[in-house]
UniProtKB/TrEMBL annotation:
GO terms for molecular function: metal ion binding; oxidoreductase activity. Residues 100-201 form the Fe2OG dioxygenase domain. Belongs to the iron/ascorbate-dependent oxidoreductase family. This is Fe2OG dioxygenase domain-containing protein. Keywords: Iron, Metal-binding, Oxidoreductase. It holds the Pfam family 2OG-FeII_Oxy. PANTHER family: OXOGLUTARATE/IRON-DEPENDENT DIOXYGENASE. Signal peptide: none annotated. InterPro entries: IPNS-like_FE2OG_OXY, IPNS-like_sf, Oxoglu/Fe-dep_dioxygenase_dom, Plant_2OG-oxidoreductases.
Length: 255
């Protein structure tokens, strides 16, 4: 985990640079998406080793970690509210996050000379449970309206956070909640900053519709899948050809 500027969405380099760090260090993910490969990879943050005390670097690290801790509290609160809204005990989802792989990202989208030819982030759905995003006043985040497939801007609101429901909650809730498709457009004049915190469950969690929510009248809409394998496959497929569809939860849909 650290700085890089080579994120791709479907083999197109995103017009952005990022700094990523794990909120739980170390975290664990499968080494590969192959089901027969049970090797686990250890991920660690790459903070500078010994920054001088009271340096700007030290301050940035502290501010980032404090912010992440607070947003994590909010994330768990939201998971509790989602559980209650589904008629479940408030702590129903907590066990899935014991060895979570939650990550915070600092996004910088520089001005782009040809914004019509590039995207800050190509269209995608977030694979995890929830994403909590702080964005500045520039704008650029868009969600795809299901009704007519029009891209609708998510207007920046001062002092407000954007909450994205991810694929995992769509499956757990058996589609009571839906993961929204979104993207980020860039512009030629103003740089943009955003800070998403991605809530990812433990890599070994088998994601499937919660048993309490399914019955004869509402049968499970998804087959179980391993979160870590799904996540790694999703990241890998971002480097495949444009025509190749990313792995999606629809691949596990029971029709
Ligand atoms: O920059 C944003 O507003 C959101 C970025 C995003 O969707 C992502 O990194 O998954
Ligand atoms: Fe996203």
């Amino acid at each position: 985990m650290g700085y890089h500027e080579s994120e791709h969405t479907k083999n197109v380099r995103d017009w952005k640079e990022v700094f990523d760090f794990l909120t739980k260090d170390p975290s664990f993910l499968p080494a590969s998406p192959e089901t027969e490969d049970d090797e686990i990879r250890t991920l660690s943050n790459q903070w500078p080793e010994t920054p001088p005390q009271f340096s700007l670097l030290m301050l940035v690290r502290e501010v980032c970690q404090t912010y992440a801790r607070e947003v994590e509290k909010l994330g768990y609160k939201l998971l509790e509210l989602i559980s209650l809204s589904l008629g479940l005990p408030s702590n129903r989802l907590n066990g899935y996050f014991e060895d979570h792989t939650t990550m915070m990202r600092l996004n910088h989208y520089p001005p782009c000379p040809c914004p019509e030819l590039a995207l800050g982030v190509g269209r995608h759905k977030d694979a995890g449970a929830l994403t909590i995003v702080a964005q500045d006043a520039v704008g650029g985040l868009q969600v795809r309206r299901k009704l007519d497939e029009v891209w609708v801007p998510v207007k920046p609101t001062p002092n407000a956070l954007v909450i994205n429901v991810g694929d995992t909650i769509q499956v757990w809730s058996n589609e009571a909640y839906e993961s929204v498709e979104h993207r980020v457009v860039v512009n030629s004049e103003r740089e943009r900053f955003s800070i998403p915190v991605f809530f990812f469950p433990s890599h070994y969690v088998m994601v499937k519709p919660l048993e309490e929510l399914v019955n004869e009248g509402n049968p499970p809409k998804y087959k179980p899948y391993n979160f870590g394998k799904f996540f790694v496959a999703r990241n890998r497929s971002d480097y495949k050809k444009l025509e190749v569809q990313n792995i999606q939860i629809s691949d596990f849909k029971i029709i």
